[in-house]
Design goal:
Blueprint (H helix, E strand, L loop, with lengths): L2 E5 L2 E4 L4 E8 L7 E7 L6 E6 L6 E3 L7 E6 L4 E6 L8 E8 L15 E2 L3 E6 L1
Parallel strand pairs: 2-11
Antiparallel strand pairs: 1-3, 3-8, 4-5, 4-9, 5-6, 7-8, 9-10, 9-11
């Protein structure tokens, strides 16, 4: 079983930056495709970004494209989400997700990602 633990959330002013981290343990990290989702208060969880296990394929939600970058560091078993130019609407709990297999036609669906972390809160003040 794989375990995912997010960190790096916090309170930041609009226009600021944060880098979220997700540490993965329990299995060989390089086997997993990784993703970030988020859930704002009163809303459903939504896709943010995804990264293939090779690091060669990335996908971003339109709402964050150009402002966030997903990356991985296999030597540290960690995936990152660098978020810049943050907006109040980015306020949410951010979740890390992993899957060993991905056809990439449905990467934005929660159901495609079997492993999840507990989440880290990001709050952007105006």
């Amino acid at each position: 079983q794989v375990q995912l633990v997010e960190s790096g959330g916090g309170l930041v002013q609009a226009g600021g930056s944060l880098r979220l981290s997700c540490a993965v343990s329990g299995r060989t990290f390089s086997y997993y495709n990784m993703a970030w989702f988020r859930q704002a208060p009163g809303k459903e969880r939504e896709f943010v970004a995804a990264l293939s296990r090779s690091g060669g394929t990335t996908y971003y939600a339109d709402s964050v494209n150009g402002r966030v970058t997903i990356s991985r560091e296999d030597a540290k078993n960690t995936v990152y989400l660098q978020m810049n130019s943050l907006k109040p609407e980015d306020t949410a709990v951010y979740y890390c997700a992993a899957t060993p297999a991905m056809g990439w036609s449905s990467y934005f669906k929660e159901s495609e990602w079997p492993y999840w972390g507990q989440g880290t809160q990001v709050t952007v003040s105006s």
